[in-house]
Amino acid sequence: MSFIILAGVVLIHIAAVLYTIFIIKEWKHRRATKGVARFIAAAVIFDVLATSCMMIGTTETYFTLHGILGYTALAIMAMDAILIWRHRSKFGHEVRFSKALHRVSLFGYFLWLTAFGTGEYLALMNMQQ
């Protein structure tokens, strides 16, 4: 495994932890608290870095099922981060999220987990060859 792919693997696992903490905090508080906003921002940053590393290090096409799921999930999570930061700047951290914004967070997270899982599966299949 090349260094750049290994860096991507480490970064994507950090992003997974950050996304999970974000979802737990978002579920618990239902507000744009400082922690919620920071964890989603950090998760998106680590996800972008990980995706970049994996794109640089891959020898295959970027448009696989795993890639398309991952790009879509990353786009939704980035949009979610923007909406959360916008909500925080417009309403402060005391106003609760709308149900729609909460659903976007959950949908993005579960789509992201699906992409993460397909990546893990592909990695295991490549190790067996």
What's the number of helices? 4
| Secondary structure category | mainly alpha
Distance between the termini: 13 Å
β-sheet strand percentage: under 5%
Question: If you average the pLDDT, what whole number results?
Answer: 92
Task: Estimate the global geometry from the Cα principal axes.
Answer: elongated
Number of E-state strands: 0
Order of helices and strands: HHHH
Poorly predicted spans: none
Gyration radius from CA atoms, angstroms: 15 Å
Describe what you observe in this structure.
- By secondary structure, the protein is mostly helical.
- It has four helices and no strands.
- α1 runs antiparallel to α2.
- It is elongated and about 50 Å long.
- The two termini are 13 Å apart.
Key traits:
single chain; 129 residues; mainly alpha; 0% strand; elongated
Quick summary:
This protein has 129 residues and is an all-alpha fold.
Write the layout of secondary structure elements.
Blueprint (H helix, E strand, L loop, with lengths): L2 H27 L4 H24 L7 H27 L7 H30 L1
